[in-house]
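INFO worker-7 received task bundle
INFO bundle size: 2
INFO processing item 0
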Amino acid sequence: MRAWALPRRLHGPRTVRWRLTLLYGALFVAAGALLLTFVYLLAHATVGVSATSGGNTQVVSGEPALTAPTLTAVAEAARSDQLHQLVVYAVVALAVMTVASLALGWLMAGRVLSPLRTMTASARRISADNLHARLAVPGPDDELKAMADTFDAVLARLEGAFEAQKQFVANASHELRTPLTLQQAIVDVTLADPDASVQTLRTALARVRAAGQEQERLIEALLTLARSQRGLEAREFVDLAAVVRDRLPDAGLCDAGLRVEARLESAPVLGDPQLIERLVVNLTDNAVRHNLPSGEGSWVSVWTGLDPLGRPGLRIENSGPVIAADQAAGLFEPFRRLGAERVHKREGLGLGMSIVAAVVAAHGGGVRARTRPRGGLVVEVSLPRYVLPLSSVPVGVGGRVV
């Protein structure tokens, strides 16, 4: 420590209460000094007028007793004494009232800050184990209550995030454990058979390999979800129409026997090309996977373009089983599979629509799903409007804007 450093107690007030007290006292001293100055100037002018308003001489028994200079000198002396006494009394009164104002300021500052101390004590007792607790400050709708309500709202969002994270970890653990359990069961059954043939071993190894591939796909989906929730690290020019046009031949639509209706108009987006492609892949895969069987009039409709507000959008509509209208929003939750058929067949990883929602949120857009009365689903994606600068030329689809 340096030799000239001041002690910690001399560095000034450390609490808001002391600062408010000193502020109150300083304001009172300033206001009192201005008031006393005004009173002094007023008294000075009044006494001066009264001292010069008398006659020039005084007559006693018909003869002048005091001359004018003598009366003026006496009046000036009396006036000076009166003003001096006024200043002394005023300074003493100001000093006394300053001490009183500091004491009253200390008390009032403590009363004003009392709810804040209560909120601080309550906030210190809140941890990850009791995020359900709230400050719940009563009283009028003033600034302190607004701050407490804001803190309660933050706690509510944190509680929801923690609960969602716990649920996600539990679901992910269950989804990852299922292939492992299946692999272990296949290996145990195969090893327990001493007469297992080469074909039996090959079949067991193929099933183990398939379970491992399922784990790999799940881990890749989890990484994609985490990446999209982290936000965008780089933005490039992407045309949704070009991405969908390149994806349709690889989506297995023709192999599934689906009738495809596509109306692809330019929809420029400034975003991450890989995440945008993943969004399109997940939506098209979902439309194919959860559709009617081949030969039952199954179809998929895809549209890209600009909405009436000029925002680029993507809409994918497909036939399929009937889904309750109130369950559509749940499709965007991780590992959420609606209907007994989807749960038992375990088609997909349960993360496709969650990744779609995370990618759209990372780009600042919106996504919503609505069910069709005759069965199937309509998913609409709306992304922020992007206008190419006149001096910018896109280098192909997915190329960087120079």
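INFO item 0 finished
INFO processing item 1
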Amino acid sequence: MRFEAEWMRGGTSKCWVFEAEHLQEGGAGLDELLPRLFGSPDSRQIDGVGGATSTTSKAVILHRPAGDGVDIEFTFAQVGIEEAAVDWGSNCGNYSAVVGLYAIEKGWVVPDGDMTRVVTRNTNTGQIIVQRVATPDGSLPEVPAANMPGVPFPGHLVGLGFHDPAGKTTGALLPTGAAVDTISAGGKNWTVSMVDAGAPVVMVRAGELGLDPARFDSWTSGVEQQLDVLEQVRRQAAVRMGLASTAAGAARAIPKLAVVGAPAGTDPACDVNVMMLSMGKPHPALAITGSIALTLAARTPGTVLHAITGAPRGATLHLRTPAGVIETWTEELDGSLLVGVDRTARTIATTIIHLPGVSGSAAAASLAGATL
């Protein structure tokens, strides 16, 4: 079989973008088809299009809805690497940035002024994301010039505004009803905050891991030495948040886990240091859906993060990550809250993916069911 696809960078990650109708031509169910396309299970993904890391083994499936004010719907798939499995339980903010750009490049949305608004809905969570794509003089620039931390080359500027993001997965900003909880793992008690906004996230104090807030550059090695206990914390949080019935049954992708700590001294460029884990390993930058949860946590008295940042200094929150400082923003829109972050995106390739031995029509049923 042959599958049309775009290879795109969104934020600090790369993904394969498919139109739903193209995958429906494939045959196997998506839980079987996507791992095979990506070359899983194999740590190298050598016989597929996966990039063998959590930030490059992902797919976005696009669908054009009929009406209700939404321009485009998209489903996010976290494709396993060592496992031939797909996690449909969350969204990815970095990859969300490709959706509005794709819609404009394909002519699904006509540019309007210097900033074109594309209203998108993520089907994994039901989250509405208002995307603002830079279109100076009413068109996409031939040579994109927007830069962002963690990416060496420029792309098209895309602002992502998450519309009233609290509780989209669990039903509540604080799924346990408490701003802080205690989780026992590895022979000690951990004080954590569990927040659902953009994506479910459990936040752990850096000090409880023995990390030095003044030496953020040393956090990676310190976190890597404690991945097992952090995974225990994350899995127990999944049960507390209602995402899994048992710790063993917790998904790999959610909840996300963030290690947070106060910046050294008085640093006007940074409100908090953050290291997030992705699929059990330190993230090279920051999961954008996770940054939305961090932003609302900073605005919620009593949380681990609010204890670090204090009362909001303004509409912007500065998060130091391994890739640099990322800014998130909040604003009111017609009585609703938008929590957002600016990303860049660009198309890398338009291609045909070849896959032998696939036939039938089961993918259509899969797309019509749980994934869209």
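INFO item 1 finished
INFO post-check item 1: The helical segments are 20-23, 30-38, 93-105, 219-224, 227-240, 288-298, 304-309, 362-371.
INFO post-check item 1: DSSP finds eight helices and 17 strands in the chain.
INFO worker-7 idle
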